[in-house]
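User: Can you model how 5-O-phosphono-beta-D-ribofuranosylamine sits in this protein?
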Amino acid sequence: MALARITILISGRGSNMAAVIDAAATGRIEGAVTHVISNRADAGGLAYARQHGIATSVVDHRAHPSRDAFDAALAEAIDRGEPDLVVLAGFMRILGADFVNRYEGRMLNIHPSLLPAYPGTQTHRRVLEDHGQRHGCTVHFVTPDVDGGPIVAQAEVRVFPDDDVATLAARVLEQEHRLLPEVVGWFCDGRLRLDAGRVCIDDMVK
Ligand code: GRF
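Assistant: Here's the modeled complex, given as structure tokens:
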């Protein structure tokens, strides 16, 4: 079977993107990252993608007069790469329902909390403010409900009394870098799908 084509959307550093690129480059997943798209030209992750010979595009949200116009330009850029899977990896724009529905069942997001707890931004700070004892990350299918789509997998970390945002974020990020490539690998193997809104994960057949 041909390798699954993966397009990754980023807005910044791109360390989750890099984890997927590395997993694909070393054959740990049966997929190829063929396109990286950022809504910011200064996203650090773009250089990493280019160094790995991956096509990159910038679709700047500020260059579009409305969210619909931005979504349309983004969809055009994505579709040019004919991806099997679209991965939102630190992509910091809210996407409209039409856009999201277009990629139903083939768009995943990584979020730094144990959803449904702490949707939105500043998750590490909010967990610390609430004196939470557990935190983590979630990979889910993207639906128009922001951070509310069907959950595929989660990884949990402990919160220690002396944690600050930086130490907690680093502990979660380590899990993100493990979990995201793993879930992307399931999708590329054809083991993971969304069936009438429910997540199905087949047993490993290899
Ligand atoms: C990650 O924590 C991701 O879960 C969140 O934003 C951060 C992006 O980091 N949405 P990076 O760009 O992947 O390094």
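A couple of observations from the model: The radius of gyration is 16 Å. The CA atoms of residues 150 and 198 lie 7 Å apart.
User: Helpful, thanks.
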